[in-house]
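To illustrate the input format used throughout this study, we show a single complete record. The first block contains the structure-token representation of the backbone; no residue identities are included at this stage. The design step must infer an amino acid for every position from geometry alone.
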């Protein structure tokens, strides 16, 4: 039996890859405008980084990591996310020695052993940013506004931006105790996952999708109820700045993220049309993470979005640009002599940066014309025995069906002119 790709992974084929390139290019442009620089880190890291960084009680660390022993018996893990890795690099590569804050972005594959379904993969791709070394509310607001502006530029509609503050360690400890208190008598109504969460991470019960859990948490104390003065002021500033930047958001006091490192601001962006996995972006502030993995106390803020999900949203809203052929012309050389002459023409054109191709299967004129047309190529450059004898090249406009004859000796110049004119 033929070998198949692993479950939860995808082959991105020509025709689809162009959409990814379009999305990635837009992301890079927006990052440039906001002054973020790219960082690339290894695809795998010491397992301990994620255990300490993402948190021992999270689903990611408990159930979803691709962890293996390398040949030197070291435990390694394919990165399930980038925040911990970027913080590791910040410490290891002494980025704290650079002008602060450092503003970084990344685009790349992540790996989580999840149950694959629409919008949920085992290898997926994230675009994200991390800002390290600034605790000001303006950082949070700038990050969320970057997400908003990117989506505006892509033309996305019907977004829901949910914002919350999960507070600092002090507010969280207080909230946790109040929440456990509230839920003690309702514990039996919770789903099995949430019964398990009751001790290790009761906050997550607040955003469980199970209707019984949702009913059990009606009236439960929210994170907003327990914010200390500092966290509350910070949150107020973030919201005021978001308003000033024109971001349309909703405060959702039940929003808690699935990773342990968040402090203060947490946010998510949803597009309901793409189905159950509707979160296209998530992030927040993580003021304790760098210290947690052994670095100097450093505040941080960031987010990540799944490229597969953003593309799905663009697709359902019909916002993906038409894939156009990148080839300007196809050389149709008939016979061996014409192929030799044509080959030199081809290389002259390519040296000038004009995308041209040649039929590699030595097919008939009719088949080649049909194939060039099917590929969306604008011009066919026809060189047969007759043209060779007369030292001319036949240029056929496949869209208009017109053709002109040019002397071979000036053909390159002529085609360059046409290319630059954009005809
Ligand atoms: P996250 O919420 O785990 O956060 O993932 C961010 C986004 O990645 C999700 O909103 C979703 O769009 C996409 N995503 C996650 N898992 C999958 C999957 N299995 N298949 C497809 N897409 C997926 C983080 O990863 C944090 N590191 C974000 C962050 C950066 N917080 C601060 N800085």
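Output of the design step:
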């Amino acid at each position: 039996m033929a070998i198949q790709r692993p479950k939860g992974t995808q082959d991105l084929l020509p025709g689809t890859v162009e959409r990814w390139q379009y999305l990635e290019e837009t992301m890079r442009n927006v990052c440039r405008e906001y002054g973020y620089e790219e960082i690339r880190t290894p695809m795998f890291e010491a397992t301990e980084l994620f255990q300490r960084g993402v948190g021992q009680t999270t689903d990611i660390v408990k159930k979803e990591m691709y962890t293996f022993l390398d040949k030197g018996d070291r435990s390694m893990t394919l990165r399930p996310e980038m925040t911990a890795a970027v913080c590791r690099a910040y410490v290891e590569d002494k980025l704290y020695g650079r002008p602060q804050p450092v503003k970084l972005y990344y685009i790349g594959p992540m790996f989580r052993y999840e149950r694959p379904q629409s919008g949920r993969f085992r290898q997926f791709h994230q675009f994200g940013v991390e800002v390290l070394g600034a605790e000001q509310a303006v950082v949070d607001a700038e990050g969320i506004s970057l997400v908003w502006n990117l989506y505006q530029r892509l033309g996305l509609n019907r977004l829901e931006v949910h914002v919350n503050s999960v507070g600092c360690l002090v507010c969280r400890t207080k909230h946790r105790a109040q929440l456990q208190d509230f839920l003690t008598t309702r514990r039996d109504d919770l789903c099995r996952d949430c019964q398990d969460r009751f001790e290790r991470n009761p906050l997550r019960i607040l955003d469980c999708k199970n209707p019984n859990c949702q009913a059990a948490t009606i009236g439960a104390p929210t994170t907003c109820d327990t914010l200390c003065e500092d966290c509350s002021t910070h949150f107020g500033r973030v919201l005021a700045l978001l308003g000033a930047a024109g971001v349309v958001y909703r405060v959702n006091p039940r929003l808690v993220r699935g990773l342990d490192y968040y402090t203060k601001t947490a946010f998510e962006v949803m597009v309901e049309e793409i189905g159950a996995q509707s979160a296209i972006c998530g992030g927040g502030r993580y003021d304790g993470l760098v210290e947690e993995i052994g670095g100097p106390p450093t505040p941080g803020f960031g987010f990540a979005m799944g490229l597969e999900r953003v593309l799905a949203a663009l697709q359902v809203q019909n916002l993906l640009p038409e894939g156009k052929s990148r080839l300007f012309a196809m050389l149709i050389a008939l016979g061996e002599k014409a192929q030799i002459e044509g080959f030199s023409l081809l290389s002259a054109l390519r040296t000038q940066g004009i995308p041209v191709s040649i039929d590699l299967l030595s097919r008939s004129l009719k088949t080649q014309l049909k194939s060039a047309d099917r590929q969306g190529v604008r011009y066919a450059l026809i060189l047969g025995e007759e043209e060779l004898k007369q030292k001319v090249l036949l240029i056929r406009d496949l869209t208009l069906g017109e053709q002109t004859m040019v002397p071979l000796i000036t053909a390159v110049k002529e085609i360059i002119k046409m290319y630059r004119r954009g005809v």
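Structural context for interpreting the output: The two ends are 49 Å apart (CA to CA). The first helix runs from residue 17 to 34.
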